Amino acid sequence: MKPKYRFGDQDFDVSPVRRGNPSVLNINGSLATVYHDEASGYLQKLTINGRTFEAHVARDGDDIFVQLNGEHWHFQAINPIDAAGDSSNSGDIVSAPMPGVVVSLNVEVGERVSEGTTILTIESMKLQTAIIAERDGQVAELYFLEGDTFDKGADLLRFEAPSEDTPN
Amino acid sequence: MSSSVNIQRLLVANRGEISSRIMRTCQRLGIETVVIFHAVDAKAPFVREADLALEIYGETPTAAYLDIAQIVELATHNNVHAIHPGYGFLAENRAFAEAILQAGITFVGPTPAAIGLLGDKVASREFVARHGFPLAPSVPDLGTDREALLLAATKIGFPVLIKAAAGGGGKGMHIVHEPQAFKAAFELATSEAERYFGDPRVYCEKYLVKPRHIEVQILADEFGCCIHLGERECSVQRRFQKVIEETPAPNLSAATRQRICETAVGIAKAAKYTSAGTVEFVMDSQENYYFLEMNTRLQVEHPVTEMVTGIDLVEAQINIAAGLPLPFTQEDICHAGHAIELRICAEDPDQGFIPATGKVCFLREPQLSGIRLDTSLHQGSEVTTAFDPMLAKLIAHGDSRESARKKLVTALAEQVILGVMTNSAFLGRILKDESFIAGEVHTHFIADNIESLSRQEGDTDALNAALVVAASNDSNFLELLNKIPEPHSTMGGWRNA
After folding, report:
1. Regarding predicted confidence, which is higher, B167 or B428?
2. Across the interface, which of A53, A67, A99 has its CB nearest the CB of B416?
3. How far apart are CA A16 and CA A22, in angstroms?
4. Phi, psi for residue A120 in degrees, rounded to 5
5. Which residue spans within B328-469 are E strands per DSSP?
6. What is the Cα–Cα distance from B165 to B232, expressed in whole angstroms?
7. What ipTM does this complex have?
8. Is A99 in contact with B357 (Cβ distance < 8 A)?
């Protein structure tokens, strides 16, 4: 299995081709020649295409944090086994843009809402954000109650097209 | 002085970097230090730095730090002579100051009456207007009557800013560009006002185009001596919250500088203010300025003033609270060089500054001289949403603005924080922005320049380098690497992970 790293919503395959200094890596199908200038503890210096980069790196579980020439890179090492099952369709799921707490729920499950309606208000680090319906529809499921806390990326609610049939 | 008190043991009713900063002064003055802490902060540096650390309890960590009765009770039981509130939490809470005084403890701050007068944004505006100081066009306190407020806002003309009457720190503030957007903004503002300040009242003021935020540091004793320590330029903001502050303000005429500082002293004197305080103004491009609000406490950005004046503001606060006269007059105050502060925050500037969380797994502090780092971070720190996202303040002092700016560029490069996203790369880009270098700042600076300040995509070399570094920390990759035959007898570079 090729090692794979996620940055943002993009995955990158990285595999070694040649060992040594310089080393050659295959990154998403392109070869990169890397001169390893220094490596000690958290610090690495390397040269690619004649450009030298100084980086610090640390790892916490699958999260790999790199600070390279002042810029932050947060990668996730993708375990090949996990990656196989990752095909969830999140089209109608509204997920949390940041970790926080539900301040208020303005609608109930099954309620029809029109575009622009505030469905719920969340708060994170003293900043409140309204989660607004991006189109007409109805709220199929709400996953949190008022006062509940959630992590970044947590599913907040499921939204679906308005049902045309009369409820029984 | 017969009315002076001897402060030998001081409790800091706060947490994080400001608790550490206040204690540094106490330790220098030989004052014993006491801190309060919630369990989530048990491993934080400020807890270890105190002579005595007292655990406080609450439904949430924030609730614990806001529990007046519990804090005053602890202070009484532990024979504390004085309480310093820091900034945020209870720093501008009149009831807290009153409870402290009733317990026979000295409050390191202004009188409860001054907090009551100036801490309420509506009352303070009325007070300032009554005394003839300049105020931006606004509507009076209309409480929570939305229709009346909308009507009044229409009269002063959009865009308007809705602000919490009891507010501060950018919380509960919303710009409204058109009447149609008023309802939604009003509802968010009143809801935030209720949550943060327990008071849903809001008011409106005219929103100026390209305004600057300039504030003046005040020190006043009980004997009627009231001086200023110059101004601070705090225009570089996001979400109405400051991220870069400096003193002196760049591109400000000497005449305006003198006038705005004198206005601030006038307002503080009219309010019979004592202790350290800050009078905030909004200034338009013609250098007309208007009173915004007065903060009756130590500011987050106080270090820049300390670095150019050499005056320890916490020491001054403690001495004033102890009933001592100010040891200097206005003429004694000298301003040397230039200081700039960066607020390092756990947030993602490329995602609309949403707060970031995580655990600090590696930390390296800048080693450059002329740099002051006020921080609560330590390796292993958990950054959660429980508190404000500010992690550290990086402050540089130089002979000139340019030398302070360059020091900060270097210091930012030296500082490494791994494990939580921060705005440090974004701050670095601001420092290198031509308009910023020219001192052409205003409160919309970040919003107007967000594209050029954002991280530039498409640098394949940097991406590849980052991927190589990441992979070299991954056992999955190293396993593959080690299966490749070694071409040379020796090799350098790869770490043994």
Report:
1. B428
2. A67
3. 11
4. -155, 165
5. 338-345, 347-348, 354-355, 358-359, 362-364, 371-375, 382-383, 390-398, 416-418
6. 24
7. 0.82
8. yes
The β-bridge partners of B373 are B394
Please name the residue that has the structure tokens 């971070």: B377
Among B424, B344, B425, CA closest to B388: B344
B188/A34 touch (CB, cutoff 8 Å), yes or no: no
Q: Taking 80 as the threshold, does the pLDDT of residue A161 lie above it?
A: no
Read off the amino acid at residue B235: S
CA atoms of A139 and A161, how far apart (whole Å): 9
Residue from A119, A68, A145 nearest B418 by CA: A68
3-class DSSP state of A101: strand
Return the pLDDT at B196. 82
State the catalytic residues of B: 297
pLDDT digits (tens, 9 = 90+) for B23-60: 999 999 999 999 999 999 999 999 999 999 999 999 99
- Tell me the nearest-neighbour CA distance from A137 into chain B, angstroms: 20
- Fill in the DSSP letter of residue B378: -
CB A137 within 8 A of CB A112: yes
In angstroms, the separation between the Cα of residue B484 and the nearest Cα of chain A is: 6
**What is the pLDDT confidence band of residue B163, given thresholds at 50, 70 and 90?**
confident
pLDDT level of residue A166 (50, 70, 90 thresholds): very low
Closest C-alpha among B335, B348, B454 to residue B401: B335
Dump the DSSP string for B23-92: HHHHHHHT-EEEEEE-GGGTTSHHHHHSSEEEE---SSHHHHHT-HHHHHHHHHHTT-SEEE--SSTTTT
pLDDT at res. B167: 72
Written as six digits, the tokens of B405 are 């700016």
Of B15, B420, B186, nearest in space to A152 by CA? B420
A121 and B188 within 8 Å at the Cβ level: the answer is yes
Which of B192, B241, B350, B416 is the best residue to mutate to test the A interface, defined by the most A CB atoms within 10 Å of its own CB?
B416
Establish if B472 touches chain A: CB-CB under 8 angstroms: yes
| Model pLDDT, residue B496 | 43
Measured between CB atoms, does B414 come within 8 Å of chain A?
A: no
Average pLDDT over chain A, rounded to an integer: 83
Burial class (CB in 10 A: 0-12, 13-18, 19+), B479: exposed
Do B242 and B301 meet the contact criterion of CB atoms below 8 Å apart?
A: yes
Task: Report yes or no: B192 at the A interface, CB cutoff 8 Å.
Answer: yes
Q: Once rounded to an integer, what is the mean pLDDT over residues A145-159?
A: 84
| pLDDT for B312 | 98
Question: Which helix H or strand E contains B212, and what residues bound it?
Answer: strand B212-220
- Band (B485; pLDDT cuts 50, 70, 90): confident
> For residue range B196-214, what is the model confidence (pLDDT) as tens digits?
888 888 888 888 878 999 9
Bridge-based pairing state of the strands B241-247 and B338-345: antiparallel
B chain contacts of residue A125, beta-carbon cutoff 8 Å: 355, 385, 387-389
Report B:449-468 residues touching A (Cβ under 8 A): 455, 461-468
